[in-house]
Amino acid sequence: MTCDPILEVDKVRVLIWSYSSFQRNYSSYHLYEGIILALLKRGHDVLLLQKDFDGAPPTPPSLEKEAAFKCVSIPVFADKTAGLKARYFDDIAFTKKAFRKIKGLGHFDAALVQSNNCAGFPLWMLKKMKIPAVYNEQDIFPENAIACGMLPRGLVARLATFCTKLAYHLATSVITVSEDMRRTIEKLGCPSENVHVVYNWCRGDRDYTIADENNKFLRGLEGADDCFRVVYAGNVGRMQDVGVLIEAASHLREEHIKILVVGDGAEKAPLELRSKELSLNNVQFFQGLPEADAQDVYAAADVNIITLKEGIIHTCLPSKTAACIYSRRPFIATVDPESSAAVIYRSVPYGRVVPPSDPLALANAIKACAGSFGRRYQAARHDQSEELFSWTNAFSYVGVIEKAAGSSGDSE
After folding, report:
1. Cα separations in angstroms, 272 against 42, 236, 266, 284, 334
2. DSSP labels for 62-86?
3. Which of 47, 68, 155, 374 has the most CB atoms lying inside 10 A of its own CB?
4. What local confidence, expressed as pLDDT, does residue 4 receive?
5. Where are the beta strands (DSSP E) in 155-250?
């Protein structure tokens, strides 16, 4: 289902309830910056409620001088090594603090709630305050954790699923980021007419086609000029299954191919150890870079890699998808072949799909890209895919939020 056209509505006051912070380099940083700017361009007032991790400047420079924008940050304790259970209860504690804060911030015509692991609670609280809420589902918990084995099926999983279903029931609308996720959300009980698909986008003011001599990531990187560069950039966690790329590297020992893993996460240390066990001299690991430098990493690739465990594509769409498309470099995605995401990936002339968790198939696909595209291949613009992941999608969020604000008189 596509979003309705933007309606002509009076000025409204919108609450953005974030479960992260502009203080952090997180994957939705530019998305929420874009949504807020689009709301402001439409003439609305916006209040952002977010976490305060360390007292750093709370907003991007683009929002600092916007008179119709306000930001309220709630101090939280953040342990980057905390497990799934600890993060879940931390989000519940933040939700309680946020609820108390919102009650003192005046009237809101609508709210946009960022994807989080305890979504039923904030949606229930907004319902009590009679604020129509749009829920933005970026990844479906606990279905994603169950699919990758992080959360066993049982009482805890059932309670978490109930919480997610409650959010879908209470939300005026749900915005998600792929057709595969839309179908999962509908299976969890959300009426199809309430679910909107809006694909994530790249920064609209960034160039993702960068020549090597101007690429900040490549500066000081030894041995990168005379090899075929395979780049994985992003979170290195259990859902991403970056291990399949490390195992694929063992089939590429004799090839003039170098694999660069750029990012952090729970699985990084085990994968570094595995790489040493296999004596993989063709693999290098790097720390994650600031969001502002992400385009240099994708532009440095001769082929970008998108990896997911089997079934995960039905609960999330990798945020790197737009960056890989906009870099116009060849890319390979290890996703379920029958998924809607796979159809999109295959529709891009420089995109390839191989089954998840198949190192040999991935290695063969990398060799095929090296043979057919060669080094430093730069594709022409692919209008269909770049328009699908355009930064103008921020205005689709605005349309759904405005429609929710227009229903505020019906809120119980």
Report:
1. 48, 11, 11, 9, 21
2. GGTT-TTEEEEEEE----TT--HHH
3. 47
4. 52
5. 173-176, 195-197, 228-233
Chain position carrying tokens 């008179």: 67
Q: How far apart are CA 390 and CA 392, in angstroms?
A: 5
Lookup: tokens for 320: 């790197």
Span between the terminal Cα atoms of the chain, in Å: 26
Q: Which residue has the tokens 């730069």?
A: 378
Under 8 Å between Cβ of 28 and 220 = no
Q: Identify the three-state secondary structure at position 110.
A: strand
Extended strands (E) in 237-349: 257-262, 283-286, 303-307, 331-334
DSSP 316: B
Encoded tokens for 135:
């829920």
275 three-class SS: helix
pLDDT score of 81 more than 90: no
Angle between helices 29-41 and 394-406 (to 10 degrees): 60
For residue 152, whether the previous peptide bond is cis, meaning omega lies within 30 degrees of 0, is no
Instruction: Assign 171 to helix, strand or coil.
Output: coil
CB 173 within 8 A of CB 403: yes
More confident residue, 390 or 222: 390
pLDDT digits (tens, 9 = 90+) for 242-272: 999 999 999 999 889 999 999 999 999 999 9
pTM above 0.85, yes or no: yes
